[in-house]
Amino acid sequence: MSKVLSIGSPFPAFKKKAVVSIEKGKEFIELTNETKEGQWTVMFWWPKDFTFVCPTEIAEFNKKHGDFVDRDTVLIGASTDSEFVHAAWRRDHVDLRGLKFPMLADTSKSLAEELGILDAEEKIAYRATFIIDPQGIIRWVSVYDLNVGRNVQEVLRVLDALQTDELCPCNWNKGQETLTVQLEEMNN
Predict the structure, then answer these.
(1) 115-150 CB burial, b ≥16 within 10 A, e <16
(2) Per residue in 129-166, pLDDT tens?
(3) Choosing from 5, 54, 118, 156, which is the catalytic residue?
(4) Residue 54 appears among annotated catalytic residues
(5) Is 162 helix (H, G, I), strand (E, B) or coil?
(6) Which of 6, 46, 75, 91 has its CA 20 to 30 A from that of 59?
(7) Per the confidence metrics, is the pTM higher than 0.85?
(8) Apex 125 CA angle, 114 and 48, nearest 5
C-alpha cells in the first residue's frame, strides 16, 4: 500500500461517474471535487460491490444521511467498481435502492491510488473514510481492514468536533462543553 493521504493534505481533484438513481435514464451523473465546493464532505470507500459487510455500512450511512445534511455536509460513497456495477447492486439489494447519496465509480482506480487506499494485490479500495473541510483540505482519515465495518456514529461525532473548530476532549459529543470553553472560564 502506498502512503495514505492524511490530515492537512488537499483532497485530490477528480472527475468520475456516479450512480444517483435506479430510475432508467436518470441513473448517472458526473461528479467532481468542485461539485460541492464550500461545504464539508464525507467520502467513504468500500472494497467491492455485491459483498457482505459493505451493504451494512452503506445502509447505515443512508439512515444517517439527514444527520450529514443537518451538518451542511455532502456524503459520497465510493468503490473501484464501475457505475454499471453500482447501479446493478442498487437495483438488486433492497437496502440500497433508496440511497440518498451518490455512489462514485473509481473504475480507473486512480483516485483510490492517489489517496493511498488501493490494496496492492487485489487492486480494491480499503474501507477508508475522509472528512474534507469546505476549503478541500482533509481533516480526518480512518482506514479499516477489509473485514471490519466502520461506526457511522463515530464519523458524525468527529465531524461535529471538527465543525466546532475548538478543542474537544476524549469521547466528546455534540452539545457538550468543549475544552476551549472550559479554558476560557478558567482564565476569567
Answers:
(1) bbbbeeeeebbbbbbbbbbeebebbbbbbbebeeeb
(2) 999 999 999 999 999 888 888 899 999 999 999 999 98
(3) 54
(4) yes
(5) helix
(6) 6
(7) yes
(8) 145
Phi, psi of 17 (to 5 degrees): -75, 150
Q: Is residue 134 classed as helix, strand or coil in its secondary structure?
A: coil
CA 119 to chain centre: 18
Backbone angles phi, psi at 74, to 5 degrees: -85, 135
Whether 20 and 28 have beta carbons less than 8 Å apart is answered as yes
- The C-alpha cell that represents 32 in the structure block: 467532481
Amino acid identity of 92? D
> Rounded to an integer, what distance in angstroms lies between the CA atom of residue 126 and that of residue 142?
10
Q: How far apart are CA 41 and CA 137, in angstroms?
A: 10
